## 1
Amino acid sequence: MRKIAVLGSTGSIGTQTLDVISRLPDDFEVVGLAAGNNIELLLEQVHAFKPKWVSAANETLAERVRAEVPAGVRVLSGEAGLTEIAGNSGADYVVCALVGSLGLTSTLAAIEAGADIGLANKETLVTAGHLVMDRAKSRGVSILPVDSEHSAIFQCLNGEDGKAIKRLLLTASGGSFRHLGREELRNVSVADALKHPNWSMGAKVTIDSATMANKGLEVIEAHWLFGLPYDQIDVVLHPESIVHSMVEFVDTSVMAQLGNPDMRVPIQYALTYPKRVASPASPLDLLKQGSLHFKPMDFERYPCLRLAFEAGRSGGTATTVFNAANEIAVARFLRGEIPFLAIEDIIGNVLAKHATQAAPSLEAILETDAWARKEAAETE
Ligand SMILES: NC(=O)C1=CN([C@@H]2O[C@H](COP(=O)(O)OP(=O)(O)OC[C@H]3O[C@@H](n4cnc5c(N)ncnc54)[C@H](OP(=O)(O)O)[C@@H]3O)[C@@H](O)[C@H]2O)C=CC1
Ligand SMILES: CC(=O)[C@@H](O)[C@H](O)COP(=O)(O)O
Ligand SMILES: [Mn+2]
């Protein structure tokens, strides 16, 4: 029985993770749950899973939780609460389902404590991939991908030698505005941007999908997870989101992982690896599906993906800036402060002002992240 903590338990990935865990009662004991502001849902989860460690976004919310949970449950708050649960709750498996680079310090704390990581929080690898991967290697912990594309690649690789890989092919749905040309993107609404064609997800990743910044984050995530240069990572448009990604090998064989879009499948695989167990997801019926489509990526239509490749190739703090500027720009768009197309402008402008620092320390990353956030908040 593994002791598991879920950071971001009230979000899209967090709730689906708990759904998966509830079907595997002999395999997992929930020892820690961390949420942000959704205290009602957090309390329901505490009553259902009985963790000994709980955290909320701030002390006021934590007080409300303390009043409702049994004595003996430790209720913490803020980033310190996240790192405490990640590193000191006794969890030997931590699911990081937080959104944004907020997940970095707690992921590092979990690694330091020797816990394996189920990683949904791609921003952590984008902002500090070298630190996360180096520390995981030296502590001997596994980083198991939850993101659907990376889970697909992980399954296709199945232990193959890195030298056998010709390239990774990440699939991209095209997002909520895939049928619109660039001119038509000028006045799109927040409500329409939040309508992903295939997946029901949190707001930030849904907007990232519409700008294609999500695929940019995923290209950088793949670079760190699978240790391949950017020249060996490609993106292909695939509107159905049935092929979750592919690997082409040097002998021309292409392996793909397919399934209906349901995050409980990659979440479960990250939890039960190397075992496969039955899933509540609906089986893929290719005969009913009939056809699948693939188109080349259009970097003019989706400049955020071009910026992500450029930042990835620059390396060092460039990807920290790409991520932080994107997080702030998306938050501003969601608040109705800026138009949709300003997201890519802000990322491009903040990156253009930044002098990349190679192999940054954690301190340098946190400083760069703060600088890029301030710039992105002030850029018109
Ligand atoms: N959703 C999906 O299908 C997929 C998501 N991902 C990635 O997984 C990650 C999570 O995405 P998703 O689940 O959609 O996001 P959501 O917005 O649905 O959930 C985010 C979670 O983080 C918590 N949180 C936010 N701010 C804080 C804070 N300051 N302190 C503590 N907790 C906080 C939220 O708490 P609360 O709600 O209580 O405020 C919530 O539990 C992202 O990196 C995303 O890119 C990857 C693949 C698919
Ligand atoms: C489900 C998942 O993994 C998301 O990150 C997904 O990738 C979003 O889809 P697109 O970015 O392809 O629109
Ligand atoms: Mn994905």
## 2
Amino acid sequence: MTKRYGKTLAVDNLSFQVHPGHVTGFLGPNGAGKSTTMRIMLDLDAPTAGGVRIDGKHYRELAEPLSYMGALLEAKAMHGGRSAYNNLLCLAQSNRIPRARVDEVLDIVGLSAVARKKSKGFSLGMGQRLGIASALLGDPKILMFDEPVNGLDPEGIHWIRNLMKNLAAQGRTVFVSSHLMSEMALTADHLIVIGQGRLLADTSMADFIATNSRSYVRVRSPQHEELKDAFQRAGLTAVEVGDGSFEVEGADAAKAIGELAAQNSLTLHELSPQQASLEEAFMQMTAGSVEYHAHHPGDPTTPGAPGPQWGPGWGGAPAGDDTEKKG
Ligand SMILES: Nc1ncnc2c1ncn2[C@@H]1O[C@H](COP(=O)(O)OP(=O)(O)OP(=O)(O)O)[C@@H](O)[C@H]1O
């Protein structure tokens, strides 16, 4: 689908599928179009072109939408003057959901003790839990969460991760957005990555980790050319990177390099095993499509900077190919 707001192309010919039994992470930097996509999925906004089908149907064609697809959106509209219990009861009654389910979901999200308190006094985290309770109310087979960890404390974050995994293990479809790769790495088993409304990757988490958890050794010497010759003679593949250092694949290469330097009486100023983080890989991938971007020299998100190579599974052009918008 495509969604345009005036001159802004919020979603650009985006196409992907979300499957049951998995937690699918929907990842993208701020302004990438995640919330817009989710709103369109729920028929809260109309696409400019294309559309979303849920088991072949449009959202509005679902007989009992709340029992089919539950959602927590970023700004959940709750009546602040009503108690948590009454907010959920109203939703239950207008969707023919039994009253007993209200107590059940309040218990699941840990709000039973404050069920009779007005929701306007709730903290951000409590509000998130109430939003999650309303998503679970209809016991739906599809669940969608837009940035659910926002405002949750560490215990809350741990709880929501397990909740999502359990829902997927029950065979449900769980679709969750985030702008944090580190969060997704702990929760999702499939990833949809978008930038500027476009699909950048549609891959399993395992493939993403295998491709991007690259370990290598960084080597720096004032005798750069001599070291380069020594690498060649020893048959070691060392890649020269822009800042005057070399990168040699494999964290365990440090020993061989140290010995090689000693044998050739070469001084080393750096010999450091490195592990590329998934967060770096995500930043590198979306570097060309970040709306609001601060640049720092040597920043791994700077287009053209050395970074992980994308495997054959990647759907988009390598970062740096796009025209960059500086904020
Ligand atoms: N109602 C709207 N009117 C005009 N522009 C909009 C509207 N909603 C979203 N946009 C624009 O569409 C683009 C995508 O926004 P969207 O909120 O979907 O991104 P997002 O990935 O959810 O970002 P975030 O992580 O910051 O919530 C942005 O450029 C945003 O400014």
